[in-house]
Specification:
It contains 11 helices and no strands. The mean pLDDT is 85. By secondary structure, it is mainly alpha-helical. It has 2 domains: 47 residues, no CATH class; 208 residues, MetI-like fold, CATH 1.10.3720.
């Protein structure tokens, strides 16, 4: 599919969703069609309206109110993403290359991954305080396991035939890591990084929501406290836009590092 056509379809989906939201929250269904009195399909008290949300978002950026909070959240997200992804890659490679080590720690890794992260948030706040590091720690726990399991599986998926041929050609362990294991894990790793971006942001926002004095999660929590639905949706809109921007950066890095990868069928 051509890039321009794909972009058009993506924008079209957004336009349709916004249009449904707009008409559902501004146009009443006449009395007698569904109920005995006219009503909004999407009550603006609960859903706000697209125009109100866009106006609030524009005002927050124009007046500069949101910049400080956005900076805090993005810093927490970036730190959680980098630390969690780096840890996941290193430990994933290490466990995949050390079978005994992986077997010993397998139940503990699964138990740690099964822990609900929301339960950990108050513990991190108690240990690290209400500053950025408790939010970073929560984000790291979300990002680490996503990257770890994908990298581990990517290394394990290396064909034994390819390994045997590489060793027969005289490749050392260092060359195997560079020319065999790393390319095999790279696709799996970037697949997980696209998901990890969102989870890093979720960790930061949830941590701010549960206890913080700054950040987008804090602003959303404050808006909810006074039933400011427009403020809540405005904060969610800002989060969504910046997730897309961060993911675009990850995609650019992926395309740069995987130029050797053949184009999939049907793509152009």
């Amino acid at each position: 599919m051509k890039r321009a056509r794909l972009l058009f379809l993506q924008v079209l989906v957004a336009v349709v969703l916004i249009a449904v939201w707009h008409f559902g929250s501004t146009v009443k269904v006449p009395a007698g069609i569904v109920s005995q009195k006219a009503f909004y399909p999407l009550d603006p008290f609960f859903f706000s309206t697209p125009l109100a949300v866009f106006q609030r978002t524009w005002r927050d950026f124009y007046t500069g109110v949101i910049w400080y909070h956005l900076g805090i959240t993005l810093l927490e997200t970036a730190l959680a993403f980098v630390i969690g992804a780096a840890g996941g890659v290193l430990v994933g490679f290490w466990f995949a290359r050390k079978q005994m080590l992986a077997a010993v720690f397998d139940p503990y890794v699964k138990m740690a991954n099964a822990l609900p992260r929301v339960v950990l948030a108050p513990i991190f706040a108690l240990w690290l305080g209400l500053g950025i590091w408790s939010k970073v720690a929560l984000g790291v726990t979300l990002v680490f396991f996503i990257v770890f399991f994908n990298v581990y599986q990517g290394v394990k998926e290396v064909s034994p035939t390819v390994l045997a041929n590489a060793r027969m050609l005289g490749m050392s362990e260092r060359h195997l890591m560079r020319h065999v294991y790393w390319p095999s894990a790279l696709t799996w790793m970037f697949s997980s990084l696209h998901t990890a971006v969102g989870f890093a942001l979720v960790g930061a926002v949830v941590g701010e929501y549960l206890g913080s004095a700054a950040g987008l999660g804090y602003r959303i929590h404050q808006a909810e406290g006074v039933f400011d639905v427009t403020g809540v949706f405005s904060g969610m809109l800002v989060l969504a836009v910046f997730v897309i921007l961060i993911d675009a950066v990850v995609t650019a890095v992926e395309n740069r590092l995987t130029v050797w990868r053949p184009t999939a069928a049907g793509q152009s």
